Structure formats: structure tokens, C-alpha cells
Amino acid sequence: xxxxxxxxxxxxxxxxxxxxxxxxxxxxxxxxxxxxxxxxxxxxxxxxxxxxxxxxxxxxxxxxxxxxxxxxxxxxxxxxxxxxxxxxxxxxxxxxxxxxxxxxxxxxxxxxxxxxxxxxxxxxxxxxxxxxxxxxxxxxxxxxxxxxxxxxxxxxxxxxxxxxxxxxxxxxxxxxxxxxxxxxxxxxxxxxxxxxxxxxxxxxxxxxxxxxxxxxxxxxxxxxxxxxxxxxxxxxxxxxxxxxxxxxxxxxxxxxxxxxxxxxxxxxxxxxxxxxxxxxxxxxxxxxxxxxxxxxxxxxxxxxxxxxxxxxxxxxxxxxxxxxxxxxxxxxxxxxxxxxxxxxxxxx
Length: 348
Prior knowledge:
The chain is mainly alpha-helical. It has helices at residues 2-18, 34-41, 46-58, 60-68, 75-104, 109-120, 124-127, 139-155, 164-178, 181-185, 201-216, 223-239, 249-262, 264-270, 273-280, 282-304, 316-328, 330-337. It contains 18 helices and no strands. The chain has one domain (2-114, 146-181, 200-341). The longest helix is centred in the N-terminal third of the chain and has 30 residues, at 75-104. Keywords: Membrane, Transmembrane, Transmembrane helix. Residues 1-331 form the Acyltransferase domain. This is Acyltransferase 3 domain-containing protein. The chain crosses the membrane at residues 42-67, 88-105, 146-162, 192-211, 274-296, 316-337. It comes from Rubritalea halochordaticola.
């Protein structure tokens, strides 16, 4: 699942480099070969896939404690592991951006220093009203993740509900209802909520629901799920810009992910070693893929292939080449910036 998420994100940002003009959000305006670029332009929802995965993974030990009476997670250890695992590579990426950006752009150290401080506190989006961080543009999602990490032990108390059906119903109800929250503050002075966990809470809650299902029922493994999940993956990009059903998008995405994890063919495909390996390196790729895209396009692709800024198949080959080089660089990024800060396995 993490491989799918990072693939969607990298394709989306590759698309931005090769097709910088706004693309029609309404799929009824798409014709012919434009469908390829349209689907890549919707790859931004890979971020929401990551949110659901976080809801699943982060609350798993808490849910296991309340559902199966396993050892209670130590909050101090939990926060320490999250800090080492996430904060150190993140700050390295910020610092590299701070040191390099003034030499390749119009930004100065004086301009970037306040942004470095805001980013270090995971508050850049709030302080700068949602403006992307020039030091690390994808960092806004990490600010949302950190808010969830801090609140996860509290949200995990929902797993204390003893009856499985009531527990699942509560999680699903809260996820659907929280999907209406952005509509309540639209056109108000509370637009800053867009940059907080509140605006993205349905995805994390649905990840928690997947945790509940994983722990309290036998995991199915049915070929029929494949025939539902694959059409859903293809349909989701068409529904993302349909306002009347926007509150259902998180649920549809979670259903798609769940069936992908338990469909016989998709589960087999997603279990391939190279997919699992790249998925495991997704944090390194996420932190540094923007810089690699910039360097590869400017110094390699543009020297070899002339790209045309239009919605055609002409840019597809250089786009795929650029995205492929991002993934080929993943092992080196992982070994340098992520693996040294991963928690060591406990000795038996």
C-alpha cells in the first residue's frame, strides 16, 4: 500500500514538472490521450492513502492492547520512537534545503530562517496560511501526521468499546461525520483548519477501522475483491472532483485499500519483494523526491529530450524516465537518511 501511495505522489509531482498548466478537474472535458495525464494529475490523493495507512499502523499496538489484552504500549517509548524515526530525517531534509536553496533560487538565508523555525515546529502551514514550504514543499502533510501521532493514544481509546459491532459502527460514524467538518467552516475565518488534522481526520479514523477489522475478524483472501478493487482504483480519480459525494471519498478509498489488501491477485502482486522494498523506503522518497525531480529534469532529461508544455503523449517518455530515476535513487536515500534512525529490533 505504501508503494501505491508513493507511486501516486511521484507521478503527480512528475506531472507538475512536465504539464505545469492547470489541468481540467472535470473529467467530462478530457479527450483522447489526455486521459493519461488526467489520471496522473489526480495522483495527489496518494497523500490520503498515506493518512489511512498511518491510522492503521500507528494505532495497531494500542488497539491490540484493548482488543486482545496485549501489553499496554508505553507512551514515552512510543513518542521517542516516533521522534527518532520521523524528526531526524525530516530536519536533515529541511537543513539541506536551507543551505542549498539560496544558491539556486531568489530566496535568501534571511528569508528562509523564519520558515526553517516554523517548519521545525511543524507549524509552517499554520503560520504561512497554507503556503507551501520552499525548503520542503511536501512537508505540509508531515505536519498533519505529527498532529495525529500526538493524538493517536487518545483516539485509540475508542478501541475500549467492548462490543465489536458497536466499536466498528462508532469509528465509521465518526469518520463519515468528520468528513462534513470542512463544509462547516468554508467561507469563514476558520479556514486555517484546512491545515490541521481536523480537515483530514476521516482518513485516519478509517485507518483505525481497518485496524479494528484486522484484529477482531479473520482476514479474507478472495479473488472477488480483485474485481471490485481494480475498478475502484480507476473510478476514484473521476469522483475526486464531485462535490456532492466528497464526504464519501475517504470511505471509498478505505474500501478500495482494504479489498486490495485482501484480494488474492492484488495481495500477491503487492507482496512482491521489490514492491515491499520500495514501499518501505517511501519516507526517504517522499522527503527528497522533489529535489531529485528538479535535478533530473533540469540536468538530464532536458538535455536529452525536448519537452513540450502541453497535454499530449510527447512528454510521457521523459516523465516516466524522470520518475523511474527517483525510484532508482531510493536505496541510496534510504541508507543515508532513514535506516540509521530506524528503531533497532528488540533482542529476545
